[in-house]
Design a protein that fits this description.
Layout (H helix, E strand, L loop, with lengths): L11 E4 L3 H13 L3 E4 L7 H5 L15 H9 L13 H13 L8 E2 L2 E8 L15 E7 L4 E6 L1 E4 L27 E3 L9 H4 L3 E5 L3 H16 L4 E5 L18 H15 L4 E3 L2 E8 L5 E7 L4 E7 L1 E4 L28 H4 L8 E2 L4 H4 L6 E3 L13 H15 L3 H5 L8 E8 L5 E7 L12 E2 L1
Parallel strand pairs: 1-2, 1-7, 2-3, 7-17, 8-15, 9-10, 9-15, 10-11
Antiparallel strand pairs: 4-5, 5-6, 12-13, 13-14, 16-20, 18-19
């Protein structure tokens, strides 16, 4: 029989030292609860650094957690311009780094600490007896190859999804040849104008994906094309109907997001970018040190298409890494791989934009007491996450851990009241925009939208 122990004095283990993980730490400080932040990278916000060159489409006013701001203000912090759009590097330099350096947080932050497994102490997930009273055992691997187990009263997994990108294959798996020619591939948003410029300048580049990540890459390549002769851009998307590809344009409540789609559409219309729609990759072939031939199907699904490229950028989204959660009782939606109650609120099959609905501890709950997933990872495979949503999630989760059910149930999400949730283009004319207006200050009795 497993001996039960009092875990009330143990820390809350936060996995991930990025914006949501550090926001969770700030809320735990405010509640006077012990915690430890476990960041796999050698610096805080390691994943953010990988897209640090990318400018966010939401201004500073939506990117700073309230509890974090209170701690920073008390330390004499000078906040950035609320209306300015930060890059990922700005987010780290002007907000996350000062937050992580605060005396209330810094001593509890462990860098170079990769979580490899989580479970209950000496009890696998099959056993029911006294489960909720047994501390979590968080197994970690340190940068020097050491191993350790941290006991915790609760776990908040805010590790994100950046390190688990979706593959090229439209079926959700890598196509033949994708792994063999991995040195010609990049996933996510490479820095084609900076760190990675030499890999793309003057090259034939294939970008696959239809979201904001893909559009960011395409537009950066367009800028590079103006600087480096011979840079050729082919953009492949899986959908045949491209009307949703461009977003809401000038009607978007976050102008920078709308501008991305408008600029991309203009570049396609002008012929500066070759658009393949639809295109579903079926294989990759090539020779060592040379270009690759990406084969696929277009049209009605039977027309073969092939693209020769020196570099391939796969920007088809991300998925949660669940490998270290095998001993946690998860309640996952079978399609989205997010918490079951959250799925209908964020399902991209039902919502055509970055729809954000009020939610907190209740919707994020899993069958494992004391365990939760927050931030981008909480959305599973849905691409509709906004940073402000993560801040609200951890506020509610920490309130729940503190036993403050009233605060946990109260929704305090603040986002633009108007958002573009459905876009229909009538030929070459202006888009017809269906907008949703509503307050995000209280949980709705019926489903409603608050798009960011």
């Amino acid at each position: 029989m497993t001996q039960q122990t009092d875990s009330s004095d143990l820390p809350v283990a936060i996995i991930g030292g990025g914006p949501v993980g550090l926001a969770a730490a700030a809320h735990l400080v405010a509640r006077g609860l012990p915690f430890v932040v476990l960041e796999a990278g050698g610096q805080i916000a390691d994943s953010v650094r990988r897209w640090g060159h990318v400018r966010m489409f939401s201004p500073w006013q939506y990117n700073i957690d309230k509890a974090a701001r209170s701690l920073l203000d008390a330390a004499g912090w000078t906040p950035p311009d609320a209306k300015r759009l930060p890059t990922g590097n700005d987010l780290i330099r002007d907000y996350l780094a000062p937050l992580a350096a605060l005396p209330a947080i810094a001593p509890h932050l462990r860098l170079g600490t990769k979580v490899v497994a989580i479970g209950r102490e000496a009890q696998d997930k099959v056993v029911d007896a006294g489960r909720a009273d047994i501390p979590f055992a968080v197994q970690i691997e340190t940068a020097d190859g050491g191993h350790e187990t941290i006991r915790a009263r609760a776990v908040i997994d805010a590790s994100g999804t950046w390190t688990a990108p979706n593959p090229l294959g439209a079926g959700g798996y890598a196509v033949p040849g994708e792994t063999a020619f991995a040195d010609r591939f990049a996933y996510g948003i490479p820095d084609v104008l900076g760190r990675d410029r030499d890999l793309y300048a003057g090259k034939r580049v294939l970008v696959v994906g239809s979201g904001h990540s893909a559009i960011n890459v395409v537009l950066d390549l367009l800028t590079l094309r103006q600087q480096a002769e011979g840079t050729a851009i082919t953009w492949a998307v899986r959908r045949a109907d491209t009307t949703r590809l461009w977003g809401g344009g000038a009607a978007d409540a976050l102008p920078a997001r709308g501008d991305l789609g408008s600029r991309a559409r203009n570049a396609v219309d002008s012929g500066e970018i070759t658009l393949l729609a639809p295109f579903r990759a079926t294989g990759v072939d090539g020779v060592e040190g040379g270009p690759v031939l990406v084969s696929g199907l277009g049209g009605d699904g039977s027309a073969p298409i092939s693209v020769t490229a020196d570099r391939v950028v796969v920007a088809t989204g991300f998925r949660p890494d669940l490998s270290f959660l095998r001993e946690i009782r998860l309640g996952l939606d079978p399609a989205l791989e997010c918490a079951t109650a959250l799925a209908p609120l964020i399902d991209p099959n039902l919502h055509s934009c970055g729809t954000v609905r009020p939610h907190g501890a209740r919707e994020l709950a899993h069958p494992e007491p004391g365990f939760s997933i927050a931030g981008m990872k909480s959305y599973g495979r849905a691409p509709t996450f906004l940073l402000a949503t993560g801040h609200e999630q951890v506020r509610s989760l920490v309130a729940d851990l503190a036993g403050d059910r009233q605060a946990a149930e109260k929704v305090e999400l603040e986002l633009p009241e108007t958002g573009v949730c459905n876009t229909q283009f009538a030929g070459a004319g202006a888009p017809a925009i269906a907008e949703t207006k509503g307050s995000c200050s209280a949980a709705p009795k019926k489903p409603s939208s608050c798009c960011g």
